Protein 1
Amino acid sequence: MQDFASEFTRALSLILEGDSELWAIVLLSLRVSIFAVLISALIGMPFGAALAVARFRGRRALIILVNALMGLPPVVVGLLVYLMLSRSGPLGVLELLYTPTAMIIAQVVLVTPIMAALTRQVVEILAEEYSEQLRSLGVSRLASVPVLLWDARLALVTALLAGFGRAIAEVGAVIIVGGNINHVTRVMTTTIALETSKGNLALALALGVILIGLAIAVNAMVSALALRAEREGLSHA
């Protein structure tokens, strides 16, 4: 128990004293995850909105597929991205393997289905609510996508936060394509796994505290946005 207290005290010291190695890892983690979430949003949100309003054969099957992809096993995604980026793979010429870019690609693959599925759910409800108004204005289904996305912006921020929470906590895929290289691709989750196995519990605990803090902050923002959306819905009722 005393050993744990000692390691935890050292962990807090690393955080409060601004340890350069610790914060370099945190900043890289944030940079990779934020870029991945933004790219996922640019791909997944328009696709999810289009899927919500479009009507075509096979739409239901596509919705089921997108929902299923939300549960993609991270290590499988890491393996597939690794094969694509390896020297013998189709994108090997780009030499992206074991770089932050490879980690961003892996996270984009994981987060994009989440963005698409959550966006589809939100926009589908709005599309049904505003269908008569949009039809009276002569707005086609696909032309209504930007309007619906803008009206759903508050709920879509929640989707962004959910995607960020998924990305920042990822370890399986990023360790495969990033290699956990010191000062290059070492992020919070992979460092926690490595330093724990080495017995360097102070650094692992410090990163764990920061990671838990980020998770709490993200969930608090999601709850605040949900409460605000509920209040706005009551005020419009």
Protein 2
Amino acid sequence: MLVRLATPFVLLLAAFVYRSGRVAKNNILTIPALPDGYYQGGNWKENCEIVKDEEAHTIKYCEDMTFWDHLDADGQLTDRFILLGCDPNRKAWNTVMGPLRDPAPRGYLWLYSTKGGEPQRVALQGYPESHDFHPLGLEISPSQSGGPSNLFVVNHARERTTIEQFSLDPTQPQFATWTRTLTSPYFISPNALALTSPTSFYVSNDHLMTRRLPNPLGHIFPIFESVGGLPLGWVSHVSVGADGAVYHEFSAMGVPFANGLALTSDGTQLALSSTSLAEIYFYARNTTTHALKHTHTVPMPFLSDNIMYDDSGALIVTGHPHFPSLIAVAANKTGATAPSWAVSVSPLSADTQVTPGFAKRPYDMHASLSASKLAPAAVSHEVETLFQSNGSVFSSSCTSLRDSETGVLYMVGLYEEGLLVCRP
């Protein structure tokens, strides 16, 4: 009888070890031996700086950022800015990690020119006074020939999570004019966005069981879903009609902690971050139907968060090397810091992929802590460290951008102040 009762638990444990054993060992039970700082492009002490809002300290706890490109009539890049979504109140209101204590203080949007200079605050023009604003994922369409751009921002408001639509005019970049609030019964836990047109996008939903559940379920079930790597997240495609109607369709189901999203410049491939399993999933995309077909999986040395393609076609992946440290920072533990790590993921040629023993090779050997120490090599892609820190230089990294023309790397942290700028 005892054996019969124990069998299901043994099977569940075996399944967990098979799927999540590497993550549990390297990113939960062990603190990776990361340096104070490492930057691929040079000496981090000389090449990196942190840009802050020195007066109000509101460039803080920025979860996501994206490039806002200005293009001429021929589609050539004329100017490039970085748009950041920041929420200094994140330690009091976080619908992903908790707590849900005080949703009143609003978050902020900031604009920073890749040419340097002081960051510029972006005011929410026409935004309803009764609306909360807690930005998570955001994406903006390029400005064509000086025309306005559509901006979509995931908003973890007090009652439910919505997606806010704004318009940004290059002639008045200090204002984001509110257009509408998008809602759907399928917006359970929206996290990241990837535009497929100025009025359509993919959106990831990271959890089925969220912190919004009544206590004690909201304290237990989301953690169980995350740590257990339960395949309950998904990706949807959303189109917005001229009247604001939301047209929703499921695109990829059964993803553990579906987080960051990124679409290649030609729109034919979508990358998705599975945080719980520390993996990146690549999908071939049908540009007509928006259907997705899984093609490759690439393991990460950390719990992957947000992802972005650079102009060269490399995927920039950022994440959290040690989950308990991130929890300690979120809980305001005295002296707590959370490590940071960002890598580039580049596709390999078919000839390289078939080399005997290729998947067992060491890789990323220039980094202070090689990614190959924590994750096996991928047959389809090459992984290379761009920046890493034990948290003393820069903490809780969640999003990085790389400008391929200049080589400059930008990074923000979920519970860090400022924008890290590293120039090669």
Protein 3
Amino acid sequence: METSSPTSSPDTGSHDRLTRGIHIFSMIIYSIAFLLGVTGNGLVIWVTGFHMKRTVNTVWFLNLAIADFIFTFFLPLSITSIAMHFHWPFGRALCKLNGGLASLNLYASVFFLTVISLDRCVCVVFPVWTQNHRQPRLASLVALGIWILSLILCMPYWYFREIDHDDSKNVTYCYKEFDTTGEAATEEEWKRVITSNSRATVIIRFIFSFIIPFYIIVICYGVIVAKLLTSQLALSSKPFKIIAVVIVVFFLCWFPLHVFSFLEMDDLPKFRTAVHIGMPLVSSLAFVNSCLNPILYVFMAHDFKEKLRHSLFLAFEKAFTEDAPIVAVQTQSTMKSDSQTL
């Protein structure tokens, strides 16, 4: 039987049990994200990269899947670290790599979702321009620009990731080290620099990976809805459902992480317990987004269930060959009205 130390209290024991429960929950979510993310995104890469003609859609979905696949592929490192009570046995290089890949996935995935929204908006609003200028080569150049921008924005997370060995516990931690002052700095300078670096990374991430992309996505789908409502076409309700799901999932997956990042940055005593408990949960929620993309953009595609009965590959190909569910609805409605006039 275990005995409690004289300084232990029921509150401390309850807090420890809650913390262990959250860590177990995080490992389960990470494991699910790893299995679904590697499988789903790997299948998307296989279909779009090796079994389909290169089109604008395949360029978008291939790069989105690569971003999510790379991140989910390295999730076992985080799972192992949590299982070992945050001991990091993989060395400094993998510590920096793992932290950098998480940030790279965040930016690249969000940027590609934004570009897909812009592309769908352009297809609906400017169909003639789209037919003449929407080429895979241009899409590939845009994708290359997204990767370069994502690498630039995630550089601070590569730079600030470090390891530290606790000799008393024989444990190595992989964490964000925002101290860039050097040994000769005073305590006041040390605190100021750490606070400044921490705030800068959180604010930059919030602006570039959430505010700007979310604003663009909402504007794009708002324009699409307005265009369809004024087009006098017989429209299915499915495109509107897809629009709603895309916006809601994007918001629910990412916004809580940014909120807790700001709370963690301010380090207010009244929020420390909430941050300690909530940060692993909202991080798990954000990571799940990496395995939801194939479901949102493929499994919700037009006529997916019917194609799935014949072949999973055919279902994926059907989704990727559609310009967009909304465009498909417009085309079908236009053909219907043309046939009536004939």
